Amino acid sequence: MGRRLRPYELRGGRGELVRRRVAADDLSETWWAPARTPYGDTAGGIAIGPDGGVFVAGANQAGAQRGIWARRLDAQGQQTWGSRLTSSGFDVSGAIAFAPDGNLILAGARDAGGSQPIVFALDPATGAPLWSASAPRDLNGTGVTDMTIDPSGNILITGSTMTTVAPAFTNRGGSDAFVLRFDGTGKLTGSWQGGSAAEDEATGIAIDSCGRIVVAGWSDGAMAGAPAGRRDAFLLSVELHEE
User: Fold this and answer.
1) Strand 54-60 versus strand 67-73 pairing type
2) 104 falls within a domain
3) I want to staple 66 with a disulfide (CB 3.0 to 4.6 A). Which of 84, 89, 112, 161 is the partner?
4) What distance in Å separates the CA atoms of residue 120 and residue 185, rounded to the nearest whole number?
5) Parallel, antiparallel, or unpaired for β 155-161 and 176-182?
6) What is the CATH number of the domain that holds 158?
């Protein structure tokens, strides 16, 4: 019987992105694939396809290939396609996942005179962009850290914002945690924002079988009760404002 393989890992050092596959029993490498330029390279998400293909989202900070990119590697670690989606070194990828319709969804933040959230739908066979979407208002100072997709194909992204993600909300001070929901065509359908008078950021998001949205993150203030001291972690169940 062959060795059991654990999920693909992303490891980096000195600005280099390295994709590795390791055996679960002794963590020995079975293959590795570097993705690096002379500039800063980062990875923001990974997804595994039904055929064992590895889909990675990342960004290059400078040079001719700067911007957000997505790549597909086969089960042996050989790249089968690459797609560059933006062109600014300030753009950052946040997460990548499959939608129920089979499309590949990538969430991140782009530089448009300031950091703005953005979502791409990609053809998983070629990496070609199918559509992209952002909030229909100026969200300068908004970064994306995570994404989840519900069984109906709704895309929910989270992170932090220094502004307000919808007119229904008021920035509490510094950066606030937020959630934006897009439908399967990229239309914004819901939003939530919360925080303290200090800095707050949501770093993870999930949806349970009943549709409840839960976000996790950190707060430097009294976001969910009196702080225990310095920076506190939080876990919140949130309800979206319908757009």
Assistant:
1) antiparallel
2) yes
3) 89
4) 10
5) antiparallel
6) 2.120.10.10
Of 190, 183, 164, the residue nearest 175 (C-alpha): 164
Residue 18 belongs to a domain: no
Q: Give the domain extent around 191.
A: 39-242
| ∠ Cα 64 66 68 (to 5°) | 145
pLDDT (tens place) for every residue of the chain, 243 residues total: 444 434 444 444 444 555 555 555 655 555 566 666 777 788 889 999 988 899 999 998 888 888 999 999 988 888 899 999 999 989 999 999 999 999 999 999 998 777 899 999 999 999 999 999 998 888 989 999 999 999 999 999 999 999 999 999 999 888 999 999 999 999 999 999 999 999 999 999 999 989 999 999 999 988 767 777 778 999 999 999 998
**Quick one: how many helices (H) and strands (E) in the chain?**
0, 19
The helix or strand, by DSSP H or E, that contains position 130, with its residue range, turns out to be: strand 129-133
Tokens for 139, please give them: 């969200």
- Within a domain: residue 32? no
Number of domains within the chain:
1
Nearest C-alpha neighbor of 151 from the set 97, 88, 108, 87:
97
